Amino acid sequence: MSLQPLFALALILISYGFIHRDICQVFLPKLKQERYFQHLTFAVLLSLFFLWSAQAGVKEGLNIHFLALTTLTLMYGWRVAYLLSMLVSLLLCAAGKLDWQLLPEYILISCLLPILISYGVFLLSYRHLPRNIFVFIFVAGFFNGGITGSLHLLISGSYLAFQDVHDWQTIYDNYLIFVPLLAFPEGLLNGMSMAMFAVFKPEWIRYFSDRDYIYNHYRKK
Q1: Using H for helix, E for strand and C for coil, what is the string for the chain?
Q2: How far, in Å, CA of 121 to CA of 127, rounded?
Q3: Which of 38, 40, 76, 197 has its CA 20 to 30 A from that of 28?
Q4: From the centroid of its chain, how far is CA 188?
Q5: CA triplet 196, 200, 201: central angle to 5 degrees?
């Protein structure tokens, strides 16, 4: 194994220390006690597995797929979303969709970093923009998903260029050129998910509160 996977594995182990407490004290007890939460979580894992399995690419290593990690982050919080994304990555390896040697790098670049970006964009919108349901859907959902997907491609492309997997021109022509094409559908996927959940299943969204986004808006009027 080269130094890059070892470095990525070390970062993953360190990052797990930040989510261990939330996983053990909040997520696992709820998963054990609430059957509907079990069904929801297993359905989310299966949906992400099929979504990430549908990869497209022209050159080896330059694969593109929808992330939906903004939706996952808003539903579960960034800590649990990170855990679930690692489980999906393991499923991809078990199914032969991902090389085991690439697992640490994949979890770091395609899971942790997009999740942190999604959480960061949500925090900025929550703290600096009006708190109403339309801001949540269009900014925390749609715009957040688009920018997360775009930054993921840029980071992945830069990492592949750093590793000399392909030259920069090849990466740009076969990978980065899809950034503007994928930004809208990635944003639409997450925005529509948040719109449906906020209306019909707001209890599924950890970072959505009727008090903040609906009732507080009308009280200010």
Answers
A1: CCHHHHHHHHHHHHHHHHHHHHHHHHHHHHHHHCHHHHHHHHHHHHHHHHHHHCCECCCCCCCECCCCHHHHHHHHCHHHHHHHHHHHHHHHHHCCCCCHHHHHHHHHHHHHHHHHHHHHHHHHHHHHCCCCHHHHHHHHHHHHHHHHHHHHHHHHHHHHHHCCCCCHHHHHHHCHHHHHHHHHHHHHHHHHHHHHHHHHCHHHCCCCCHHHHHHHHHHHC
A2: 10
A3: 197
A4: 14
A5: 95
Dist. CA 161–CA 86, nearest whole Å: 24
Listed residue (184, 189, 203, 187) closest to 139, CA to CA: 187
pLDDT of 45 higher than 80: yes
Q: Quote the pLDDT of residue 169.
A: 86
Q: Are 74 and 122 in contact (CB under 8 A)?
A: yes
Position 1 scores a pLDDT of 44
d(CA 14, CA 214): 38
Assess contact for 1 and 102: CB atoms under 8 A. no
d(C-alpha 45, C-alpha 75), whole Å: 13
Is the pLDDT confidence value at 51 over 70? yes
Q: What is the mean pLDDT of the chain?
A: 87
Amino acid 35: pLDDT: 92
Of 116-130, 134-148, 151-165, 179-193, give the lowest mean pLDDT range. 151-165
**Integer Cα distance of 117 and 28 in angstroms:** 25
Q: How far apart are CA 215 and CA 132, in angstroms?
A: 9
